[in-house]
Amino acid sequence: MEGNVEKAKGKDENKKVCNPVINKLKKKKKKKLEKQKKLEKQKKLEKQKKLEKQKKLEKKKKLEKKKKKLEKKNEIYSDKSDSDKNDELIVNFDLLDPDDIYKDNIRILLKNSELYNNLKCFEKLIHIICEQQNIGKVVCISNGNGNGNGNKNGDENNLISFATIINLNQYNELISLKDMFINKIEKINKNIEFEEDRKQIKTLFEKKNLNIGLLISNRIINCPIHVIPLIHKNIDEDIIWSQNIEDMDKNEKQFYFYDYILFYTKAYKNINNPDQIIFYNFEEEHFFKHKLYYLMWNNNNIKKFYEIENEKNKETNYKEFIIFFIITYSKYQQVSEQLQNLISTS
């Protein structure tokens, strides 16, 4: 009997005592914690939205400033050629900022450049060329309106040239582009003539605090020569404009203060006269005169040129070379100015 009493007593002790007041307090505390968590989550979302809104506003401001700059200038360039004294052909060109609508045309032009043959991040590069709102120009045959709205008037189908400068240290998506150049420097057959230049170029590439801009450009074969200096002039103006935007993020702005400009192109040497070099684009010869360092290697192609000798066409074979050279940004500015004077007096 006593055992049963003790057993019953033990059961009673194990029973939980339900106190309505304590339960109410617990529920209240739980509710308060849930509310607090909800508020914190809401604040976090609001903060995130605010940051996104701020980024959008910054981008919008940037675009508006660029638009005002373009509207202020809104230059239309003409190329005139006289067939005779009575007939005159006038063609107008619009100089515009790169945009997504030009992506297909830029892709076609870039595929014909030397850069395309070695590039792994080709599509990413095209995207950056078109999305970069600061530096770069496309040349389109004007539809006659001259209002700079290529996207509204079908000018994207009339693109004849583009050019931009991309900082090799700016975009994570283009790391393979810089790696490609470093690999080229290391893998080129050792040549005593270029050994010192090779070392110097490699040293420049390894310095992360230097801003090396890669000039990327191409054009159709019959692009008028008069628009080329204007492209370089406008690219330089874009760079200066980017350096002076007050409300631009410092992390982005630092990349527009270029120390050097890098050229990666083709050149041709006469088989019978190796000292004679013809550059793929005429202006590259003028920039090359101010090179700090350069590398050059034969890519085993032969190009036929036709020369006039004794009033007759003569076929001449030229070896094709890849040429890689660096100039200072100040020299890029200087030559861009000189090109204008050179073309205007020719």
TrEMBL record:
Transmembrane regions listed in the UniProt entry: none
Compositionally biased spans, kind Basic residues: 24-35, 56-71
Region (Disordered): 1-72
Biased composition (Basic and acidic residues): 1-16, 36-55
Entry-linked InterPro entries: BCP1_family (IPR025602)
Pfam family, one: BCCIP
GO cellular component entries: nucleus
Family in the record: Belongs to the BCP1 family.
UniProt-recorded name of the protein: Protein BCP1
